[in-house]
User: What shape does this take?
Amino acid sequence: MTELSLAMMIPRTEAEGPGLRMALWVQGCPMRCAGCCNPEMLPFERGPGASTRRVTELLESLRGLDVEGVSLLGGEPFAHDAPLAELAEGARALGRSVMVFSGYTLEELRASPRPDTARLLAATDLLVDGRYEASRQSTSRRWIGSDNQRLHLLTDRYRADDPRFTAPNQVELRLRGDALTVSGWPLFGARRLVKRGEPSP
Assistant: This one.
């Protein structure tokens, strides 16, 4: 029974990839990029709000959602390549697209000897790659944190001229009780949406 360490999950978001998507943030990253926007997700030890979820349970949730795909963030998704490969393959089998945000470059991922890294990469439609560099923060390219990062179309599911790729960035603020969560990047120059009380699946 494959389990995944999650820092955060949003069942439906329009801020983390094309269309309406489920977004999953993993807990744990081996990198320490200065200015990381999710420093609480760097330790591999579960912190407040983090949880362990079965991949089969997450896929059942995805099956029941009217979304275009799933976006995998973190933390570092490829530091959790085995469970995320299983999840991404399952998502693709359900007809959903897979987008991954990684601090590793595509070249580094392709050179990895880990078979689960190759599996996850093979099940990825869109990849945003490269370490975040705070001094090169991007405010114009959608879903890109810093100007050194790149968006790769790894399958023919999406086209480079898709108008959603050049639409304005947006940030979503969610209020659940007294907890506020922020998704989307960058915070500056983005359209902001507030969603109240959206339930978890």
Notes: The radius of gyration is 16 Å. The helical segments are 55-63, 81-93, 106-111, 115-122. The CA atoms of residues 109 and 121 lie 8 Å apart. The first strand starts at residue 3 and ends at 13.
